[in-house]
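sorry to bug you again but im stuck and you know this stuff better than me. what follows is a protein written twice so to speak, once as letters and once as structure tokens for the fold. id like you to explain what the token line says about the fold, in plain words if possible. anything you notice is useful, everything is just below.
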Amino acid sequence: MGSRLPLLIAASLFGLASVPVAAQTDAAPAEEQAQDRGDAIVVTARKREESLQDVPVSVSAFSSQRIEDRLASDIVDLADFTPGFQIQQSFGRSGDRPVIRGASNILFTDGKVGIFLDGAPYFGDFSSLELANVERVEIIKGPQSAVFGRGTLSGAINVVLKRPTDRLEAKVSGTLGSYDRRELSAFVSAPITSWLGLQAGAKFFDIDGQFRNQAVPGERLGDQNTHQYMAGLFLTPSDDFRVDLRWLHQRDDDGLYAIGLQPSTANNCFLTKRPYYCGVVQVPKTFGLNSDKLQRPGLYRNADRFLGELDWDIGGSGYNFSFQAGYSDLVEVLGTDQSYDAREFYLLGSPFVCANFVPIGNQLCTQSGFNTTDGTRRQTETYEARISSPASDRFRWRVGVFASHDRRHGLTQYLEASELGLDLLPDIRTVNNRAIFGGIDFDVTDTLTVGAELRHQVDKVRNRTPSYRAGDVFSAAYIASLTLPNPDQIVGVAGTRRATFKATLPRLTVDWKAAPDVTVYAQFAQGNAPGGFNPIGAPISTVKEEKLTNYEVGVKTSRWGFDYLNLSAFWQDYRNQVLTNTYQTATAINSYNVNIGRTRIRGLELEGAYPLAGRALQLQFNYTYLDADIRRGIEPEQAVLLLGKACKTGTATNLDLPGCRDAASIAGNRPPLVSKHSGSIGLRSENEIATGWSLFAGADLIYRSSYYAQVLNLAKSGDSTKVNLQIGLHDDNGLRITLWGKNIFDEKSPDGILRYVDLGAGVPKAPSGDSSRAFGITPTRKPEYGLTVSKSF
């Protein structure tokens, strides 16, 4: 749309905000004026309805209006406006890495931040989860294991879906934008009878990639395409009884994401040991990925999710019974050139070496082991039943049970041959979780309440490593085309590993209503992320469960003219934190999980909204300070960086050699992916310009200080400052027209950094004997502009 658009929007916003107050009557409808008042937002952060300003938990809540107002299309966008919450999207819309309050997440693992739909667990990546038809999103910080259960060590995100009301409601929205963005969504909710309601919705989204693929002419990196559908049936035969049934379908079809290798030639420190890069990484100016060597480049995801909920106020007594069941069936295929570079990397050196000197059998020597397509299927069932006493009682209690079954396995149709022979099937991973939970609250006085919650859970984890006969999976013609063909070859070594993890997880809360508009709370809570297994062959087979203990105090108020002003301070003891290391075999370089030791995290979170010029202008802000410090931990690579071959036995790092364990200590370092400072500040302005018509505008400045790529605290991202702008019109009949721009000043600090290796042809090994270090860099999105038109009925 041209480089002048940012200036046009900024000038329009300045002129709008300068309109005299006398010309600003009751510009916005009452509902919109109240959207940022904390006491007007109801949350279910403790699985019961409470005012945002009264609940003694740190929660950032976004109603559907607030989501639209912040130009948010997914949870990733909401992280910019949530204190204590960061997301690194290093790998497109696969492998989400959410970080709440400094609990770093390097590999794509469940266990640290849980995602829920109406309180039911949501499995899989959430970056394309549709927000157009939700009631609100609640981002709940601190351990939530006592309430939400497995996978909520540092927090939970609860997406609350809309329910039908007693009138017909509908909304249609469309967007056109830069990079050929096309987006259309429609939603309808209708009461059929006094006891039956129906919902239906759909969304279609498509955008071209922002970066050209230098390795494949005409291809762009970062294409995204989504089709989503939903339907719901809602039965309310009486005021005391309701049943909700929902179906959600999601299909994502994305091209390869943009990522580029900062090569080993850029390394600038530890040059005589294992050269590394120190300082702010260099975002590549061009990107090249060998997508033409992949079975299916990019991401394909197809998911069906079913939710059922029964809620019964038993005989109108106030005693409530609820039952919730969920089922999801997720297929995901990911094809990636893991060299992250247009150069063709070969683990065996070259096709010539593969064909003549390393006869593994069933090899395709022209196919690099870095070019992979992996397919998995994940099926999950969850069940929860709970009963609670009347909410009006001075002493209140609730008890419940939970069970889930989660199974993941590989898809054989995406197996193939490479220089390393035939692909192995991934482990078949099964997790069964059983839990009992409960809680009590007691009103000591009219203004003082104490509460306790407790969950005991057992996780039984089984990893079965499968094997297969080549002739049962591949055609005879395919096998015949390979080097040293052998249809009777058994691929993989079958075996089964089992582990049981038990945990008892409490939360204690003191809640003092110091005044009608002031809530003070204190909290003690523990959370966990259950352990599991590494790939066969990794230096460590089993990963211990992570444990996090949180101490927190907070205050919530609407005094001094604020719509809301919330401040929390916390101190966390994080044990057995799981991060990653790499290991090398004769034919592969793999990552594995490892418990690094112990981390202390201290922080402050602040958020609020303050009306200016009556209510025609509003200031919105949030800020996070995180002091995260590894107190005890070992990183073998650091010993090699400092002492080189003195810490090597052959090709393996040996910390038992003199001085090597001390050199490997990372005590005092900051955990990776954690910014010390982050926050945003925004202005919203709205003015009535004619009867039934209002002009609105908004501006947001979003800041994130630099974070480290790894525990070594050497390569880092650099600070990031982004600016989003919007201006538009709406009428009293539900029509809304918005012209918007995101990252309008082209902030270029990376979205992600991956510690990696450089195996390009002619690249020498490091003096330590290890592969040369390099870094995979994911660029941030370029400036985007668009026009959105929506109509509510």
About this structure: DSSP finds ten helices and 48 strands in the chain. The radius of gyration is 27 Å. The mean pLDDT is 90.
